[in-house]
Amino acid sequence: MEPVQITILILQILVRIYGQDYNPEIDWFILSERSEEQIVFVGDFKGVDEVIICDNRLYDRCGLKNKQRILLAGQTQLLIDLDPYPFTVPERIYVHTLSKGIPTHLKGYEMQMGFVYDRIHKLK
After folding, report:
1. If I label 122, which of 19, 95, 107, 110 is the partner at 20 to 30 A Cα–Cα?
2. Confidence of residue 1 (pLDDT cuts 50, 70, 90)
3. 93: domain CATH number?
4. Does an H or E element contain 5, and which?
5. Considering just the CA atoms, what is the radius of gyration of the chain in Å?
6. 12 within some domain
7. CA–CA gap between residue 39 and residue 29 (Å, rounded)
8. Total number of domains in the chain
9. Residue 10 lies in a domain
10. CA 95 – CA 89 distance, rounded (Å)
């Protein structure tokens, strides 16, 4: 085995052993093409039933839309499976929250592919 393969194997074993100590408040990830991350968005989500990422800050001008799967929804937090496909580094993506098909905010929340984000991310 190559040193890289051994390192990855050791990391996988450590994650399996200590994974129950996962703390989303201090955990982070790099947003990339292959990021399929569970992320908590914090904000005002009263009535939100859909989360869409797209290529434009204005929802009506989105050329490419990607619906995200909501795992848990509350009035102040949303847990979603963030899947940025087909966006790539260094593109910007915009997170739009919708209630009954209507955007809840005038402009989407900007995220930058290739940047580091906390697993708990405040939407301002």
Report:
1. 19
2. low
3. 2.60.40.10
4. helix 3-18
5. 16
6. no
7. 10
8. 1
9. no
10. 16
Alpha carbon distance 1, 111 (integer Å): 38
Task: Yes or no: say if 46 and 103 are a contact pair by the CB < 8 Å rule.
Answer: no
Give the angle subtended at the CA of 63 by the CAs of 54 and 34, to the nearest 5°: 45
Tens-digit pLDDT profile for residues 23-66:
555 578 889 888 888 899 999 898 999 999 999 999 999 999 99
Q: Is 103 exposed, middle or buried (0-12, 13-18, 19+ CB in 10 A)?
A: middle
Entry field: residues in the chain: 124
With tokens 């405040």, the residue in question is 122
- Distance (Å, rounded) from C-alpha 23 to C-alpha 21? 6
Give the residue numbers spanning the domain of 107.
24-122
11 lies in some domain: no
For residue 104, the SS3 value is coil
Residue 43, CA distances (Å) to 3, 6, 12, 32, 83 in order = 43, 41, 33, 23, 20
